[in-house]
Specification:
Length: 222
């Protein structure tokens, strides 16, 4: 069982939470806020409260995309966590789905977001796919990603490629492994191409072998 399933705490560090919540409070975006990967909702309820404390009600609802397979009873746990903190779970738009399926539907429906927080599956092909949500981010909106550090190349490599290809995104700051980007202007081309997805697919087995080797090496040295 994941520790957060019983503690109901956020999986972000105190510094990461401070950057995340202060960003929400400072910007007070009127549009939808999206969280991809919610764990036990420990970060979600804090984001909703931060938006309310900045004078914004949680409507339009926060949107949460998660297949809810992180641990048994995940969705019920998230709803319980919200209720404990006086947040009506019905005020949140839960989309129990893979990020890929939810993105295709959101894009088809022409949805737009002012704030996107990505903390989903950390395999490179999933991270690259999650970055497609940036297509639905409004200009001047904020995109934040967790686990951006040297130890997780499956996250850092797609993000670095993304920033190189799309100069209209600027790094606002970083706290521990949480990085914040602002979409300064509309993109001239759609974020994440077929070549980007192919790049991720080709690197995926390489990174997986490297991760397996590191685990094996640690076992030998222990």
């Amino acid at each position: 069982m994941r520790p957060c399933a019983t503690s109901l705490e956020s999986e972000l560090s105190p510094k990461e939470l401070d950057l995340l919540l202060s960003t929400i409070r400072k910007n007070t975006f009127p549009g939808k806020h999206l969280e991809i990967g919610t764990a036990a909702g420990g970060t979600l309820w804090r984001m909703i409260n931060a938006r309310c404390s900045a004078g914004q009600r949680p409507s339009p609802a926060f949107v949460v995309v998660d297949p809810m397979t992180y641990f048994r009873g995940q969705l019920d746990t998230v709803k319980k966590n919200l209720a404990i903190h006086d947040i009506n779970p019905l005020s949140v738009d839960f989309r129990v789905s893979t990020s890929d399926r939810a993105f295709r539907l959101a894009a088809k429906n022409g949805e737009r977001f002012d704030f996107i927080f990505i903390d989903g599956a950390h395999k490179i092909k999933h991270v690259m796919a999650d970055l497609r949500w940036a297509r639905l981010l409004n200009p001047n909106g904020i995109l934040m990603l967790h686990d951006y550090e040297a130890r997780t190349p499956a996250v850092t490599l797609p993000v670095k490629r993304f920033l190189k290809k799309y100069p209209n995104y600027a790094v606002l700051g970083q706290a521990d492994t949480l990085i914040a980007l602002r979409k300064k202007t509309a993109s001239r081309r759609r974020e994440i191409s077929a070549m980007d997805r192919l790049y991720a697919l080709m690197l995926s087995p390489v990174l997986q072998m490297k991760a397996s080797w590191e685990k094996w090496r640690k076992k030998l040295s222990s």
